[in-house]
Backbone:
């Protein structure tokens, strides 16, 4: 369980990106951080992962203060995958995934049979075994992302933090990665990810945290967060909420100009101003 | 943590490294490194013998080998020439090349910038400034030279790190501050060159271009001692170098204490460069080019990269020394100049090779 | 739908900034003229401003002071102004072209080319007059620029910032090695050349100025004419191409202007570093990103920097003088470090 207490984060010491935020992330849940650009979701993730030192407040992992923990100790429990990570030229998939074993190694035991086995497992899970000897920079976007996830897997952490793991990927690969993360969650891992796409968040997350200007506007299961009012409040976007025809989770459909015009047409036809029509009952 | 298996486990291909196990100690090494290393040693031996045999006083390679192994030779002068004059300077060339190559490898690793070399971050200009000051300004015996150069390099390195520190040691800032401080040092050096007495200035110019002329066993001992200590430490820190290459965020996420490790590695790099410069003056390009060549041969994993780069750097400089002695014989061109003349076109070739990336 | 409230003030600030730019230019020229007068006043023989002005309007050849001013000081100062302006504009163009804030004539190998050519000339010809230096410097600079540009343009994407810089580094090291080799083998050459290689304005006379000025003037005009294209290309080549610009031609012409400017400056005063690096940065603080303003302001600031630096260099170790190139290094480098420390985000 991750507990965020009164956390304030800043990059330059003055402007607060995250302002006195409180948040609890349940064990073995999938949490999605959503919000408009600049709302601080990436910053929050960095704050939780200890990449950013808090100005005020603290982050607790299972009761222990994250910032007081030993670096390697934390790395064995919490893994982070930043946005658009860079990879040295010529590094193979196998070598990259092997990097994930760093927190488990020492001067003496630099590479054990156990390490090798875990790396193989990670490669199998992400179906990258046939690419093991290929340089990472020759892979497609989707495969590359899977390689990074494989590395995080090799790290064998209970908690996985991912910053926009699906941005810049082809749609097929986006779904691929999210399905993989879902599997990992089924296996008992806690996943916290920053997502750009609301519908993906609604589909894959147990818990959505909506941020705006450094503060939490609302949080909860997709059903309760994905309402037109909330989306209007957080994103300034007018939407209509329907059920995803495949999974049944809430799905937001932006109105846009056509939608808004259609609405006013129907409303003038009907002779009264209507709110956005909710197609489903609230569960 | 349950391990996740999907489908049936496919045939796992052989990883491209070997695991070295000695007792409880284990260490992984890129498979490509081993053959390259062996070949390099063989070539090195060849260059060594050739280099010793060449000179004003020609000695056949066979004679050279016999002298080295202490067997009877035709001419007793061979022993003198080989052991007193040629062997030490060639060994110095080798070790300086190795030290510079490793220094450059470390720097390229911690700055994640393939253009980094000890010269760029200003360490060598600090050494140069101290050395030139000794030669041109202070009327002190030149036996102080190595110490001054070393001290100058260290002071410069501390200055660079201090000025670039702003909550962290971002690689870009390190490079830029290094460039700036180099410029100050170079301006001061120019000053001394302009106003100094011409004989001393010429001496200084030679030192500045890097030379192994007249280097004796004392020099060999100095540099060997440092290398014997610093090189193994660097190889042991290969993992950290590998992980740093992933970027600060990921490295921290993997539990690496980035600032501390970077600091330690920087100290290693500076020390190696300082020792090299203090013994032979400023030699550029080896620290830049050797890691590049090596990386193409053995890959970016530092466990294999560091020792092989050391070997290749040493080879390069030995070879450059041979050329320097040959090209305008009986005079000799300082080895640093040859290194640049070879290094620059290689780099241009590199540009050409990667032109479509 | 807004992430942050867009304040109205940046618009207002922009407008008022633009209002100041034109008159600012005139003010700048005025300051430049004043500094020329001051610089001329400075020297072993004390001369009052009145005499300076007099020497310009009512030149009396028999008056010693007038003689000193007209034949020794004035050409030197004017040369300094030309050199500073040219290097600054060359640096500004390069920074715009390569989108690299560290670009400058020194980094792109032009100085090295000129220096090598001059050393070669002295090595072969003995001790030629300064004007010969100039011709060789110009040739060397041009050849170097061609090589760097050619090397940097190989392959897909043409001359990218990184490749140009790399090519410059390579050529500088390569030529530097040869240059040093020559200097080591011949002590006389070394003695001759060492003062020139650090960049100096001492002894620059009208003759030399007359020979080198045309290059710099043409380069300056060329640069100013292309200012708008340079602004566009500094946004990024894809954007420029998308806006219909012939990026290949722009890069070539801008590079040509740079060669004329830098080559001319080096021919006149030897390789002086940092002006081309520092002046455009200073200017960008006040002027923004439009090269139509950056270029002329850089010229003025560059000229002021060199004149100022030369003034300091002349007094600081009286009666001897410091070469202005050294001065620029000592002044420019700390500024560069300041830039690196405070302005580069990690």
Residues:
């Amino acid at each position: 369980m991750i507990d965020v207490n009164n956390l304030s984060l800043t990059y330059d010491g003055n402007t607060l990106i995250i302002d006195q935020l409180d948040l609890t992330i349940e064990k073995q849940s999938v949490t999605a951080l959503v919000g408009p650009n600049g709302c601080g979701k990436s910053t929050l993730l960095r704050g939780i992962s200890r990449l950013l030192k808090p100005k005020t407040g603290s982050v607790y992992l299972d009761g222990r203060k994250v910032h007081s923990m030993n670096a390697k100790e934390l790395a064995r429990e919490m893994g982070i995958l930043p946005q658009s990570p860079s990879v040295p030229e010529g590094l193979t998939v196998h070598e990259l995934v092997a990097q994930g074993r760093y927190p488990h190694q020492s001067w003496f035991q630099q590479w054990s049979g156990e390490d090798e086995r875990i790396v193989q497992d990670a490669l199998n899970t992400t179906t990258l075994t046939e690419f093991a000897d290929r340089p990472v920079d020759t892979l497609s976007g989707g495969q590359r992302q899977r390689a990074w996830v494989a590395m995080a897997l090799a790290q064998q952490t209970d908690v996985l933090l991912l910053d926009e793991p699906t941005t810049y990927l082809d749609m097929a690969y986006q779904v691929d990665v999210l399905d993989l993360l879902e599997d990992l969650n089924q296996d008992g891992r806690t996943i916290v990810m920053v997502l750009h796409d609301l519908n993906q968040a609604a589909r894959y997350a147990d818990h959505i945290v909506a941020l705006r200007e450094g503060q939490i506007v609302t949080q909860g299961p997709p059903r309760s967060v994905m309402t037109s009012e909330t989306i209007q409040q957080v994103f300034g976007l007018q939407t209509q909420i329907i059920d995803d025809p495949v999974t049944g989770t809430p799905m937001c459909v932006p109105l846009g100009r056509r939608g808004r015009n259609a609405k006013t047409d129907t409303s003038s036809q009907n002779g009264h101003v209507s709110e956005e029509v909710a197609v489903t009952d609230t569960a | 943590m349950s391990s996740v298996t999907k489908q049936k486990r496919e045939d796992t291909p052989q990883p491209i490294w070997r695991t070295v196990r000695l007792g409880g100690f284990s260490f992984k090494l890129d498979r490509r490194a081993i053959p390259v290393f062996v070949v390099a040693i063989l070539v090195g031996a060849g260059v060594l013998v050739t280099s010793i045999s060449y000179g004003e006083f020609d000695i056949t390679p066979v004679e050279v080998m016999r002298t080295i192994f202490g067997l009877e030779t035709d001419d007793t002068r061979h022993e003198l020439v080989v052991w007193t004059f040629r062997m030490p300077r060639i060994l110095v060339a080798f070790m300086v090349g190795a030290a510079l190559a490793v220094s450059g490898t470390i720097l390229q690793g911690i700055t994640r910038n393939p253009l980094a070399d000890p010269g760029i971050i200003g360490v060598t200009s600090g050494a140069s400034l101290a050395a030139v000051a000794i030669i041109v300004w202070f009327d002190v015996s030149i036996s102080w030279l190595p110490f001054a150069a070393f001290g100058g390099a260290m002071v410069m390195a501390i200055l660079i790190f201090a000025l670039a520190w702003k909550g962290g040691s971002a690689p870009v800032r390190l490079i830029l501050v290094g460039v700036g401080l180099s410029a100050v040092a170079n301006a001061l050096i120019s000053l001394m060159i302009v106003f100094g007495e011409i004989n001393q200035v010429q001496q200084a110019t030679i030192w500045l271009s890097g030379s192994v002329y007249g280097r004796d066993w004392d020099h060999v001992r100095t540099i060997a001692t440092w290398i014997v200590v610093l090189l193994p430490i660097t190889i042991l820190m290969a993992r950290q170098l590998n992980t740093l290459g992933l970027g600060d965020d990921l490295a921290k996420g993997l539990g690496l204490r980035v600032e501390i490790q970077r600091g330690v590695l920087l100290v290693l790099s500076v020390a190696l460069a300082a020792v090299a410069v203090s013994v032979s003056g400023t030699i550029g390009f080896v620290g830049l080019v050797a890691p590049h060549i090596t990386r193409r041969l053995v890959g970016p994993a530092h466990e294999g990269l560091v020792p092989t780069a050391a070997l290749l750097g040493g080879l390069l400089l030995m070879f450059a020394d041979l050329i320097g002695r040959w090209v305008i014989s009986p005079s000799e061109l300082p080895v640093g100049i040859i290194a640049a003349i070879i290094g620059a076109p290689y780099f241009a070739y590199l540009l050409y090779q990667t032109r479509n990336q | 739908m807004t992430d942050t409230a867009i304040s109205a003030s940046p618009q207002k600030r922009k407008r008022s900034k633009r209002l100041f730019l034109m008159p600012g230019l005139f003010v700048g020229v005025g300051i430049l003229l004043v500094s020329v007068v001051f610089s001329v006043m400075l020297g072993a023989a004390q001369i009052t401003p009145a005499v300076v002005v007099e020497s310009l309007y009512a030149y009396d050849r028999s008056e010693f002071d007038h003689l000193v001013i007209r034949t020794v000081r004035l050409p030197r100062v004017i040369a300094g102004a030309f050199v500073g302006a040219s290097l600054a504009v060359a640096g500004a163009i390069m920074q715009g072209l390569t989108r690299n804030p560290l670009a400058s004539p020194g980094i792109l190998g032009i100085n090295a080319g000129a220096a090598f050519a001059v050393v070669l000339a002295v090595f072969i010809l003995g001790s030629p007059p300064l004007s010969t230096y100039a011709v060789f410097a110009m040739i060397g600079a041009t050849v170097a620029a061609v090589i760097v540009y050619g090397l940097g343009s190989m392959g897909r994407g043409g001359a990218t910032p990184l490749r140009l810089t790399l090519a410059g580094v390579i050529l500088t090291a390569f030529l530097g090695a040869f240059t040093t080799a020559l200097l080591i083998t011949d002590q006389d050459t070394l003695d001759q050349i060492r003062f020139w290689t650090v960049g100096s304005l001492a002894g620059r006379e009208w003759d030399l100025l007359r020979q080198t000025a045309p290059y710099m003037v043409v380069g300056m005009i060329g640069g100013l004419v292309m200012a708008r294209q340079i602004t566009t290309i500094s946004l990024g080549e894809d954007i420029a191409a998308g806006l219909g610009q012939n990026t290949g031609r722009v890069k070539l012409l801008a590079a040509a202007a740079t060669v004329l400017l830098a080559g001319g400056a080096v021919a006149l005063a030897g390789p002086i570093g940092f002006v081309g690096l520092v002046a455009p940065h200073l200017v960008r603080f006040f002027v923004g990103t439009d090269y139509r303003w950056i270029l002329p302001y850089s010229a003025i600031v560059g000229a002021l920097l060199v004149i100022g630096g030369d003034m300091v260099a002349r007094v600081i170790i009286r009666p001897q003088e410091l070469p202005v190139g050294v001065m620029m290094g000592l002044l420019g480098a700390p500024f560069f470090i300041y830039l690196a420390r405070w302005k580069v985000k990690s």
Q: What stands out?
A: Confidence is low (pLDDT under 50) at residues 1-12 of chain C. The interface with chain A takes residues 1-4 of chain C (CB under 8 Å). The longest helix of chain C spans residues 64-98. The radius of gyration of chain C is 21 Å.
